[in-house]
Design brief:
The chain is mainly alpha-helical and 136 residues long. Helices cover 65% and strands 6% of the residues. The protein contains six helices and two strands. It has a two-stranded antiparallel ribbon. Helix 1 runs antiparallel to helix 2 and helix 1 runs antiparallel to helix 3. The longest helix has 22 residues. The mean pLDDT is 78.
Length: 136
């Protein structure tokens, strides 16, 4: 038998931690809105104390779902990508598209690239970094 997802068991336990105190408070004939607030506070405290491991499992499953190594693709995505690639290839010469680092590198000015190349990691007299032209 397949185990329940962590979020299902955690949600059911949280609902029970709210519903049981609410039912008890309503059976004691406490005003309904006071019973709701009290049951919510009781449920919050009980779940904080007793549901640490299920809460950690839910958090871990959410993290794993949002940080997958390989993106999830389906047949529709692959078909659309192939159609877009075919349409883009028909209207453009066979030049290759610049890669992301090449595009990022071209966005910097020539002066920024020169200053990066001039700076080296050697401390000077006052503990400052010296440039190549200042060394000698």
């Amino acid at each position: 038998m397949k185990a329940l997802p962590a979020w299902v068991s955690y949600s059911v336990l949280r609902l029970l931690f709210f519903a049981i105190p609410l039912a008890i408070l309503l059976l004691l004939q406490i005003t309904w809105w006071i019973a709701l607030v009290a049951a919510a506070l009781i449920g919050l405290c009980l779940s904080y104390i007793f549901l640490r491991s299920p809460r950690d499992r839910v958090a871990q499953s959410i993290y794993l779902a949002t940080h997958r190594d390989a993106p999830v693709t389906n047949v529709d995505d692959e078909t659309e990508d192939a159609a877009v690639d075919a349409a883009a290839g028909a209207g453009r010469p066979a030049e290759s598209e610049p890669t992301a680092p090449e595009r990022a590198g071209s966005a910097r000015s020539e002066g920024e690239r020169d200053s990066e190349q001039d700076a080296i990691g050697q401390p000077g007299e006052a503990g400052q970094l010296q440039r190549k032209d200042e060394l000698s």
